[in-house]
Design goal:
Blueprint lengths: L1 E3 L2 H15 L5 E7 L7 H13 L10 E6 L4 H14 L3 E6 L4 H11 L5 E5 L3 H9 L4 E4 L2 H18 L6 E3 L3 E3 L9
Parallel strand pairs: 1-7, 2-3, 2-4, 4-5, 5-6
Antiparallel strand pairs: 6-8
Helix pairs in contact: 1-2
């Protein structure tokens, strides 16, 4: 059984959010930070969902640039993002497909890039700090406690009550801002 977000659809939600906040002709950078991108299918599915949002005419007409950063070290991240900005000076927003948006937020703060919209995932303390400071525009919450509770409950019911669980149970995608983040903590 699976309990969690509809990964593809959450990418579409991120696409809609970024379309709302990105100036019409600015580019959007999509960043995946993972050591082995082939083994993190959920990040690829989010990217696919995100890109699918822009297949219909939306507000944003800029380029969508996708980069994969294979190492979360600050030096590798800085080098990759520096290169992306040099090659694409029109970047107005950045979408991080995973939970490491704090790495890009750190970069943006050090460079003084306050006009870049940053959207990422997960309510990690480091991500929340950047959300509250305004460096990160939105975080998408995945309700990990509810996922855990429902997963354990399904396992208990299966083992103890011989109840076959529903194969898929999708949870809502939470859009978290600096104004509502404290309600999620």
């Amino acid at each position: 059984a699976y309990v969690g977000e509809d990964i593809y659809q959450s990418g579409r939600v991120a696409g809609q959010l970024i379309d709302l906040v990105t100036p019409e002709n600015r580019d959007i950078l999509v960043v995946t930070i993972a050591r082995n991108i082939r083994n993190v299918h959920h990040l690829s599915n989010r990217t696919e969902g995100f890109m699918s949002y822009f297949r219909r005419p939306g507000k944003n007409k800029g380029k969508k640039i996708i980069i994969n950063i294979p190492d979360p070290s600050s030096v590798v991240v800085k080098t990759a993002i520096d290169k992306a900005f040099v090659e694409n000076p029109g970047i107005g927003s950045i979408f991080i497909t995973g939970s490491r948006s704090y790495l890009i937020a750190t970069y943006l703060e050090k460079k003084g890039l306050k006009s870049i919209n940053l959207i990422g995932y997960d309510l990690l303390d480091s991500n929340v700090r950047f959300l509250k400071s305004g460096t990160t525009r939105f975080l998408i919450g995945q309700r990990p406690e509810e996922q855990t509770y429902k997963g354990i409950k399904k396992l208990f019911e299966y083992l103890s009550l011989h109840k076959i669980p529903e194969r898929i149970e999708y949870l809502p995608v939470d859009i978290v801002t600096s104004e509502n983040v404290d309600f999620f903590l």
